[in-house]
Structures are given as C-alpha cells and as structure tokens.
Amino acid sequence: MIYENKDQLQKGCESILAIDEDDVRVLDEGRFQGKLIDDLMYTVVFSPDSGTKEAAGFLIRRGAAALGIMSSSIQALYEAMGRKEVGGFTVHAINLRGITYDAAQAVFRAAMKGNVGPVLFEIARSEIDYTSQRPFEYTCAVTAAAVKSGWRGPVFIQGDHFQINAKKFAADAEKETQGVKNLIWEAIEAGFYNIDIDTSTLVDLSQPTIKDQQRTNFSLAAELTTMIRDLEPQGITISVGGEIGEVGGKNSTVEELQAYMDGYLEELKKRGDALKGISKISVQTGTTHGGIPLADGTVAKVKIDFDVLQKLSETSRLKYGLSGAVQHGASTLPDEAFDRFPATGTAEIHLATGFQNMIFDSSEFPDELRVKIYDYLKSKKKDEWKEKDTEEQFIYKTRKKAFGPFKLELWHLPADVRSRICDALERQFAFLFEKLKVNGTRGLLNQYIQPVDVPLKMPAALK
Predict the structure, then answer these.
(1) CB within 8 A of 30, min separation 6: which ones?
(2) Facing residues of 157 across strands?
(3) What is the pLDDT of residues 65-117, one digit of tens each?
(4) Of 143, 136, 11, nearest to 67 (Cα)?
(5) Can you give the residue ranges of every domain in the chain?
(6) Residue ranges of E strands in 274-358
(7) β-strand 17-20 against 23-26: which pairing, if any?
(8) How far is CA 40 from CA 59, 113, 410, 459, in A?
C-alpha cells in the first residue's frame, strides 16, 4: 500500500508504532517488519504528497533506531586497519541502482548467513541523478531493508564519487564546487556517515611536478573535508575517502600517493590542528567503471596491477595510518580475481555494474519490459550513441540510465519475479563476501563500532 496523505499514514501505523514527542516506539515488531515497513518504503518512493513521504521516512529511520538499527560511520574500524590491529579482508562497497529495497534485503540476508560485519551501501553523485534516488530515499531503502531482513546493529551508508566535473569546474569552479558541497550537506542530513570525495578529475598531468599535478586535487579535498567535519553530527566522525587517480586513467604510483597525502595534510593543518583527515585512498590500477563492452555486448577482460595496489595500500598504512587503498570499477572482473584483493591488503572494493547486469540479463526479467526499456534508450538517449558503437555496446553503456524513468515498473514487478532476481543477487553477494574474506567478521562491529543515535526533527505531518 502507498499512503497518499498523513491521515492514511497515521491510521496504518495504529497499534504498530507509537509517536512519543520527537521519537518512535515499536509496539508490534512482527507487524512492523512484516507489512508496515513495505508500505512505508513504497510511500517514501511513490506517494504523491511530499509531506507524507517525509513522515514515512521519519518512521522508517526512527522505528529502525528503536530496534537498534542505526546509520553509522566505519571510521573506527578503518583506523584499526590503519594500525594493523585487524586485517586480512576487503570491505565490500555495493552500489544499488535499481529495485534498491529488494536488493538491499539480499545483501543483508547474505551478510547474516555469513556472519559478515562491515559492508557499505553506496550511491554516487551521477547515480543519484540517473536512478532518481536522492540520499533521503536511499537511506530509507537501505534502513527499511535492514528492518525487513532482521538485521540489527550499525548500517554503513556511503556517498560514492562525490565528484567534481572537470569541464564544469573549468567553466565555473565556484558553482561546480558548491554543487558538491550542497550534495554533501544533503547526504549528511540523510544519514550518510561515509563520504568519498572525488576531486581526482582535477589532476593536471601537464604540470612539471607530481605535487603540482595533484595540487588542485588535494587542496579542494581538504576544503571539502573541513566542511564535512563542520557538518557531522555530534559523536560521529564521518569516514572520508580521497582519490589520487581518476578511474579509467593512468595507473597510480606511490609518488602520486605521497604527493597527494603530504599536500592534503598540509592544507588540512592550515584549517585546524585537530581536523581528522581521510581514512582511505582510491587509486587507479587498470579498471574502468562498468568495464569495456565489445561489439557483441560482452565485456573485455581487465588486467589489474595487483603489485601497484599492494604497494599503495602498504604505503598508505605505514606512512599515513590509512586503512589502505580502494579499488573501483571491479564488478565485471572474473570471479577468480576477487580473492586477490584481501591478499594484497586492499581496504575496500566498489562494485556496481555487475549487479545491474544481473538484473537486466536475468532470465526472470520480463522480455516485454526489457524491450520497452531498450526502445526508450534508442529513442531518448540516441545522442549518446557513438558512431563506432554497435547496438549492443550502446545498450550496455546506457541501460543504467533506465533505472530512474522505469522505477515504477521495476519496483512493481511481480513479487515472485523480484524474489527470484534477488535470490540470484544474494548468491553473488555471498560468493563475494567469501572471496573478500569478510565472513565471520561480525564481531568486529561490536568491538570497534559504537552506533550513535542521531535525533531527527519530527515532520509536520506527524505533529
């Protein structure tokens, strides 16, 4: 059910949730988890009334908090990794572009079966736009999925590639920077307590020294870090990530990492001696986002330079106390590659396109809807069809942009169809958790993560 107004919403919550001043008590956990959480989540996404959407999201987040489910920062665990107190695993960061509520449940189910602790749910600046998922909605979807699946404890939600667009920055640096700052503010308000700053697009390889090449990158990263520290809720240190090499560009080097970090720390110190810096560093080792589609629509094999990845991770820990290097653009790698990431000390790996492909290419996905989506892309996105690309290559590159326009149809696929698609996703998540050596790490959350209950302002519709 989708609540269209506050009266329907309040009636639907009767005897299940109680609103006490600015908080929520769960009166009937079984009914909250069984049906109401579905109705609240679909209301957040599809209700025609913005006030009712806001109220439903408040009830999801505060109802979850009453059950011990809280959005959290992974900072303390990453600091322990930087001190080499813990290690031997790579944290899985998962971008969910479509059917997010159902897909997140698959993540939680796999995590609970494997006794997995750290797993990040993330969405990039670009994905927020083309999937039509603002941070508030994304947080609600992940939090509601935790309630639905029976997860208890901290939930890690991350802003991925909060990225400066180089062309827009060149045209109007202040406007483009403010756009990222506005997104950071919105994300923190929504409960994103892990944020990856990506100013690596501004690296200028034409400059004579490596430090000069990285200067705009590290200077702006320090400025954005300072803003994050000003906005983070009391008791929470947001985990911030930096980036030294744009994914798809040339491979990163130890010298670049050192130039970036030394310059970044110098800039940060100017802004305040007590300011905490980044906890990890994203690097380029030979991958591209989404992989490189061939003429027949299959994806070209990618060779990652694991030696570079290992050197960068080790340097970042030994010299700067970071958790390690972060690998992007890896979801289309062959299965046998994933166990090499924990072996090389990679702190975090970001996966997105592979899960998108599993949705669209699933034998369970309705053929009629797939044809409708592809016809839409050929009509509405034809300006993105490069002359050298086959139809298969064009579809592969652009179908991610159908998640927003077709959200209604995707979220309302028959329940059994969504269930079977997500069963396959769950198996893949479980496989990756095993490969990345995070099975059996749940105890680390109890040891290092102390969730902070951040109060939320009561929406007008509930007063």
Answers:
(1) none
(2) 121
(3) 999 999 999 999 999 999 999 999 999 999 999 999 999 999 999 999 999 99
(4) 143
(5) 6-67, 69-359+415-448
(6) 280-283, 325-327, 348-351
(7) antiparallel
(8) 8, 26, 18, 14
- What is the Cα–Cα distance from 221 to 56, expressed in whole angstroms? 35
Burial of 185 (0-12, 13-18, 19+ CB in 10 A): middle
- Specify the DSSP element, H or E, that contains 368: helix 367-380
Residue 367, pLDDT > 60, answer: yes
Half-sphere exposure (Cβ direction) of 336: Cα atoms closer than 13 Å: 3
Q: Is 252 helix (H, G, I), strand (E, B) or coil?
A: coil
Q: What is the DSSP string of 28-44?
A: -HHHIIIIIHHHHHHHH
Domain 69-359+415-448: CATH architecture, name and number where available = Alpha-Beta Barrel (3.20)
Nearest to 332 by CA among 354, 358, 300, 361: 354
Q: What percent of the chain has pLDDT over 70?
A: 95
Highest average pLDDT, of 177-181, 206-210, 241-245, 306-310, comes from 177-181
133: amino acid identity, one letter: Q
